[in-house]
Amino acid sequence: MSSATTPPDSDPSQRRRVHSMLKHYYGLNEEGKVTEQAESLDPCDINGPHFDPEVYLNKLRMECSLGELMDHESCMVKQIRFINFICLSTDTIRKMKNDFKKMEDEMDCLSANMAAITEFSAHISGTLQDQHAQITKLSGVHTLLRKLQFLFELPARLNKCLELQAYAQAVSAHRRARCVLQQYSHMPSFRGIQDDCHVIMEQLAQQLRQKFRDGGSSAKDLSECVELLLQLDEPAEELCDKFLSHAHSSTTNPFLSPTAGTDILEFIDRGCNEFVSSLCLVIASYQELFINRPQEGELASKNIPEMANGKLHVFVDTLAARYFSLVERRIQEEKGVSDNSLLVRALDRFHRRLQAISKLLPGSAVPSQGTEIVVRAARERIKQYLSALQTFYHDSLTDVRQALAAPRGATSKDATPSLPELLTSLSNFILNQLKSVLASVHLFTAKDITFSNKPYFKGEFCSQGVREGLVVSFIKFICQSSRQYCESAGDRGGSTPPALLLLLSRLCLDYETSTISYILTLTDEQFLVQHHTPVTPVTALCAEAREAAQKLLNHYVKVQGLIISQMLRKSVETRDWVNTIEPRNVRAVMKRVVEDTTSIDVQVGLLYEEGVRKAHSSDSSKRTFSVYSSSRQQIRYAPSYTPSAPMDTNLLSNIHKLFSERIDIFSPVEFNKVSVLTGIIKISLKTFLECVRLRTFGRYGLQQIQVDCHYLQMYLWRFVSDENLVHFLLDEIVGSAAHRCLDPSPMEQSVIEVICERG
């Protein structure tokens, strides 16, 4: 390994061995001369001409061990590599020697040529030395003559350009000669040329100004005119005003004309393609001419870009204000809410195209004003959707009222829907309509809409616009409009059907228990509402809905109670109770009261649960008359009872009332059937009691009241939460009739029961 990596000349013994091998290879002796020694005939001499590899290998295999063979192989490999290196080096040196030889010949030839050229050049210079100054002088005279020729031909050249309307060439030629003519204007010949050029250029400037007044030039021609006039030292401020004045008419005339019968998207497209595009072209041309133009010489000191930029901002703001006014007026005409996608696409295109102005004119307020128009349009759209939802709600209630007023045919195929069906249908209609509106409004926040990434549409639009302005406002509207049905005047509760009051109370109660939470959760998830600003909590809306439900149910109880009370009052006030005949049956009005109460019980049971009742006694339907007269029995049967002894009667009555529970007639009802029926029956019987207290009765009149009250007791106890309430009020009615009776002779209980059972 060491011999393979060590350079050949680092070891003296190794160096001598290498020299010896080289001499042997080339057939040299120690003195470096070729030897005449006979060639070796040994076939095993690896350096001889008669070397035989097979014989050599066989000899090695027979004479050497395996280790010696491997060492011998390693040694031969090293020798082969070294000899190859020597051969390569020798070839390289031989080639380099040949190349250098050739290069030396070429350099000698080049040197000889250079010497010849130098000698020839010196000879030419010596020959032309006297004529060089003359040639230089003649060249200068030729150049001067060409310039003078250009100056003398300039008026004709300018006239020719004026005839051909080659204004740019004329201005360029005049600018080349203007300084020279000004410099030599004291010379008559040059003065004449200058005057002729001045007249011609004045005509040219007049024709360029005429292009502004004609207004028929294209934007490119107009730009060329302005550029040429600036080169002719026209006042920059005046040119700015003329340019903007011409651009004003060419930009506004195509678009700002009245257009009828086009939808909003077509209108915005036309505005963008005709007005916004033209405005952008004007801005770019104006900036290129007056703002971005390099200022040289006297123009640099006039600060033209700042002046021109101010005029451009005023021009753009004025035109944009007029354009925005038309756009807003057209947006306000979009009253229909059936398809919101057309409006959103139009607003997106409007907003997208205005961004080009912000890139062309940084600092312009036009893009932000356009964004404000989009924001106002979105707000107005929410108001329109809220109004549409309110109208839909009123229309739905109208349909419900018509369904409630329709005659009911039990066998008809298109029978009127029941209250639960109407409630479910109304609730689903409202919810589906609200979902449809939310889907339409959600288009404003779609990812492919450019203005949806604006701060307003990410925050305030979702929270204050959609959640508060649309959803919460609509829920509050439902509660408020439902409460308005409770403000009807009159004994019969106005024109509102009692069934509608019951249905709306259940609707508001359902909203309180589940619907409000569902709607607001849906809104928050769909619009990713982030409550950075104060919003109405769910609990507050639920409380408002429950309050509305409570008020509606209370009003329902009042209305139904007053309807039955009206029948009872008329039945009492229109009868002569002193001269009436002996009772033989129950009055029809009492049967009607029981029938109506049963109907109300069925109606309420369709929407509300049963509720809790107190335990009933086993003889609730067979209470005897003594139930009603237990406190007055002594009065009615005492021999001392006469109209002249009212003190004892009133005393016993007052003592009885002291030990009776106070009954709150118009107390709030609970959300169950038993509580509702209890409230209605309390109002009805209390009215019956007050009417009886205002009448005077004969013997048969008192007995008729006994029969009627017993009939009511047989049926009404099962509807209320506490049967003692019915017993107490009916007892009060009979007792009051006895107080007002001229001949208080009660009917036998057995007779009363027979009459009531007979119906």
Automatic annotation (TrEMBL):
Main location: Golgi
Residue ranges of the TM segments: none
Boundaries of every Exocyst complex component EXOC2/Sec5 N-terminal domain copy: 91-238
Domain of life (superkingdom): Eukaryota
InterPro entries in the cross-refs: Cullin_repeat-like_dom_sf, EXOC2/Sec5_N_dom, Vps51
GO biological process annotation, one example: lipid transport
Record function comment: Involved in retrograde transport from early and late endosomes to the late Golgi. The GARP complex is required for the maintenance of protein retrieval from endosomes to the TGN, acid hydrolase sorting, lysosome function, endosomal cholesterol traffic and autophagy. Acts as component of the EARP complex that is involved in endocytic recycling.
Protein name: Vacuolar protein sorting-associated protein 51 homolog
Organism: Cyprinus carpio (Common carp)
